[in-house]
Amino acid sequence: MLPDGLVCDIAGAYPAEAGAERMLRTFRLTEEGRCVIEDRISLQHPAPVTWVFLLRNCPGVREQEVISGGWRIRASVGMMIHAEEIRITDRRMARNFPGSLGRVWFTDGTETEHRVCFTAEPEKKTETDRTAGGD
């Protein structure tokens, strides 16, 4: 436990064939309203690592960040980013999540050590957004 967050080793949540020696995940909330997730991963052999996020709103990718539902998510290092919309077809799930969800993959390069920090924060409105009725 940290004064402003939580640290846990999540390596045990993955099968042995993933080759994860250590996967430390830190969660923090900042005074500015940001949610920060930092991962430090040590693998037995060099391999790419992919992080997957499910989002309530269909995401858009702009440069090295994802925009979804008024939030902006970015990674601390350059990664390949892929986003898609997932239509909800299960009736029971649709009661809580009508329409669709968004799925985003962030993929890092082939390394034995991965360190990445994801930051989610409310998207700032520009003056153009405000005058166009976006606020």
What's the CATH class label? Mainly Beta
Shape: globular
**Rounded mean pLDDT score:** 89
Q: Compute the CA-based radius of gyration.
A: 17 Å
CATH topology: Beta-galactosidase, Chain A, domain 5
Instruction: Assign the structural class, choosing from mainly alpha, mainly beta, alpha/beta, alpha+beta, or little secondary structure.
Output: mainly beta
Give the helix level as a range of percent: 10-25%
Low-pLDDT stretches: none
Order of helices and strands: EEEEEEEEHEEH
For the largest beta sheet, what order do the strands appear in spatially?
1-2-3-10-7-6-5
Beta-strand proportion: over 45%
Name the CATH architecture: Distorted Sandwich
The count of DSSP E runs of length 2 or more, i.e. the number of strands, is 10
Number of helices: 2
Overall structural domain count: 1
Q: Give a quick account of the main beta sheet: strands, pairing sense, barrel closure.
A: 7 strands, antiparallel
The end-to-end span amounts to 38 Å
Supply database-style keywords.
135 residues; mainly beta; Beta-galactosidase, Chain A, domain 5; seven-stranded antiparallel sheet; 2 helices; globular
Task: Walk me through what this model shows.
Strands 1-2-3-10-7-6-5 form a seven-stranded antiparallel β-sheet, with no helix packed on it. The protein is mostly beta strands and 135 residues long. It has helices at residues 91-96, 127-134; strands spanning 5-9, 20-29, 35-47, 50-55, 60-62, 65-68, 71-75, 80-87, 100-107, 111-122. The model has no long low-confidence stretch (mean pLDDT 89). The chain has a single domain (5-124), classed as Beta-galactosidase, Chain A, domain 5 (Distorted Sandwich).
